Amino acid sequence: MTQELDFKELQNLAAEILGIDPNEVQLDKSFQRDLAADSLDLVELIAAVEDKYDVELSEETLEGMKSIRDLWVFLEEKQKSKAEA
Amino acid sequence: MAVTGLGFVTPIGQDIETVWSSLVEGVSGVGPITRFDASDYACRIAAEVKDYDAERFMDRKTARHIGRYCQFAVGAAKMALEDAGLDPHEMDPDDVGVIISSGIGGMEEIERNHSALLERGVRRISPFTVPMMIADMAAGIVAMQTGAGGLNYAIVSACASSGHAIGEAAEIIKRGDSVAMIAGGAEATITPLTMGAFIQIKAVSERNDEPERACRPWDVERDGFVMGEGSAVLILEDWEHARKRGAHVYAEIAGYGGSADMYHVTAPHPEGQGAIRAMRKALTKAEVEPEEIGYVNAHGTSTKLGDVAETKAIKAVFGDHAYKLAVSSTKSMHAHLLGGAGALEAGATILALERGVLPPTINLDKQDPECDLDYVPNHSRKADVKVAISNSFGFGGHNATLVIKKTEPN
């Protein structure tokens, strides 16, 4: 049984990297459009997400995500498949 | 060239009055290294900037994405502009330029990311490594943060960097390319690799048991310089521009001379040949006779070679007058800010002229017989000096001398 993901942890992680308040990191927000993340921020975010969640995340994948919800779903699915493995 | 603003982020204070009181009271900023675990190092002391709140001067995201030396520079530059009452946002962007030097650049950030590379692979190098490590970024980020859109770059000449920055900034105003310049230097090199590298050339003091007593220029017991960190920034302004807006003028940058030793990568020329020519050029350009100089803010790093060479150079330039003027090394208190040193020492000289008090050389208990000038030992001294010089010398044999004049009341 794997632990369920805690959205607060993702909020804190993204907030730290983007230098914003964790509460600004919401499922319907986009990193680029709403949270002013530029390409350098995204590269840093990828490294942090990969380290924290033990996943592989390409720049194309992250850039293709319309909102933080997409990232969250991605992480949940990875977590699920790890649990099933 | 009028100096209308000063800003300091230093080991002996982070505002003008704290820096000044440390200078006149002979307070040392040196202590045990806390920036990293230096327990295996032969030198375990440095003058750190304590409790610097970068977010007082910039948003959190900016602070995260720039090197420590740039964080210092932004703070010092903003304080200097505020002190000058000058806001480049309200001016033609081309009228205000920036030269903020660093001797080395973002060393801490280079080291951190190199460790990440070795330990965790290439994909763990921060995408901000390049902007954090390059030595020009303080000038760039200060422009972004202040609206100063004129000439913008850094001058790299090791420990003479910000002496050159101020000298060249004054020339830029003189030739009409700017109305005002934000000029100075910044450094943050209390890092494992930098400290280790300076230990390997036996340049730094190992007086670990008495950190406050470690930097002792011209004292026989000296054993090397002490690493410092921080930033100092001056606002230089066209005299008429400053006068018209009723700005407070601290002092005047009256002349500047530079030269090369042509001798050795780390050792100064033993007779101070390069230093002599820098001082002479600066005096000539300022149209000042050697006898008019009342105070020399020396480079005075607390190394045997440097102290003796600079003393010989001062004697060569000033002749008998060398024994009448006062010489001090404020590095004895704030330690060596490398690329930030020249600007901090120019700032100290400016305040000394304005306030009529010469800061001392502390820890000068037993003078080296080869260094026989008046080094204002251990206690500050009242003195109404009209003209002073500030020397900065760097590895590579770079020399820069600034001539600074007291503002005459009109």
Explain what the structure shows.
The complex is a heterodimer of chains A (85) and B (410). The radius of gyration of chain A is 12 Å and the shape is globular. Chain A is mainly α and 85 residues long. Chain A contains four helices and no strands. Chain B is of the alpha/beta class and 410 residues long. Chain B has one domain (1-397): Peroxisomal Thiolase, Chain A, domain 1 (3-Layer(aba) Sandwich). Helices cover 34% and strands 19% of the residues of chain B. Chain B contains 13 helices and 14 strands. In chain B, helix 11 links the parallel strand 9 (293-297) and strand 10. In chain B, helix 3 crosses helix 6 and helix 10 crosses helix 11 (304-318). The longest helix of chain B is centred in the N-terminal third of the chain and has 17 residues, at 68-84. Chain B is globular, with a radius of gyration of 20 Å. The A-B interface holds A 17-20, 39-41, 43-44, 47, 50-51 and B 59-65, 123-124, 126-128.
Oligomeric state of this protein = heterodimer
How would you name the CATH homologous superfamily of chain B?
Answer: Thiolase/Chalcone synthase
Q: Helical segment tally of chain A?
A: 4
Q: What would you call the shape of chain B?
A: globular
- Radius of gyration of chain B equals 20 Å
CATH structural architecture of chain B:
3-Layer(aba) Sandwich
What is the global morphology of chain A? globular
Rg of chain A, please? 12 Å
Domain count of chain B: the total is: 1
Number of strands of chain A: 0
Largest sheet of chain A: none
- For the largest beta sheet of chain B, what order do the strands appear in spatially? 5-4-6-7-1-8-14-13-9-10
Taken in chain order, the helices and strands of chain A follow as HHHH
Spans of at least 5 consecutive residues with low confidence of chain B: none
- Compute the separation of the termini of chain A in Å: 11 Å
Helix content of chain B: 25-40%
* Biggest pleated-sheet summary of chain B: 10 strands, mixed
Order of helices and strands of chain B: EHEEHHEHHHEHEHEHEHEHEHHEEEE
Percent of sequence in beta strands of chain B: 15-25%
